[in-house]
Amino acid sequence: MNRNGCKLMRALKIYLALFAQMLKVRLSYRGDFIADLFATAFGGLASLFFVLLFFVPIGDLAGWKKDEILLIVGLSMMSYGLFATVSWNLFEFGDRYIIEGRFDRVLLRPISTWAQILCDQFRIPVLAETVIGVGVVAHSVTNLGLDWSALEWAFVALTVVCGALLYVFVFSILASASFHFEDRVGIAPPVFNVIPFGRWPQEIFPWPIQALLRWVIPFGFVAYYPGTALLGRTGLAGLAIAAPLVTLAFGLLAAFCWRLGVRKYESTGS
Length: 270
Description:
By secondary structure, the protein is mainly alpha-helical. 71% of the residues lie in helices and 1% in strands. It contains 13 helices and two strands; from the N terminus they run ααββααααααααααα. It has helices at 3-28, 30-55, 66-86, 88-91, 93-99, 103-107, 113-119, 127-144, 150-176, 188-192, 207-216, 224-230, 237-264; strands at 60-61, 64-65. It has a two-stranded antiparallel sheet. It is globular, with a radius of gyration of 20 Å. The model has no long low-confidence stretch (mean pLDDT 84).
């Protein structure tokens, strides 16, 4: 194994050790962990109940059946659960790491500062949303009578991973703005509220919102566009295939913004 490969393996071992340590800490307070798990599961089930309740009076939405939209929702929930497990520090980055000066400690370690932020705190109970999403997708596939091959299930797995990474990259870009503009709240909360818009057929929105979800805050690529390909809907196949490329592009942009921000960091002076 070459030098870069050894460094990668060493970094992975460190991150796995951090995850294992955080899991031990969370499980040491079992009551709190279980309560958090049930709260997360309840939130995910509540969002599903809203979708089901919405379809009671209308039957379908812009030509989309209930189970077709549930498939999109399930894919999004799977990606969101993975993302939310490591995202908490991205929301609190400006307050915890810049204003309070904790980023100094991060800079002392000889591994990626960005990866340290993600691994510094895990919200393990949020994985319940991913589990619920798996059940929703399986239920929708059964109800729709879809006979997917191994290739299509592999595309589902790729979609979920790319969707989670896309969320991480978008909010990493937003967090990196805290290096330049010190603010306890940051600009992540309003963008976070846009996530649910990516779980619905994009054609129900006016064109400015469609453009926003496609090219500016590309949450439509998390589940909607890949979902149209899995459902065999024509006209958007190119966008569905482009989802991994969009994720890669935002990953490169996130890396650039993060490095630029780290160079800008001047500590708290205390």
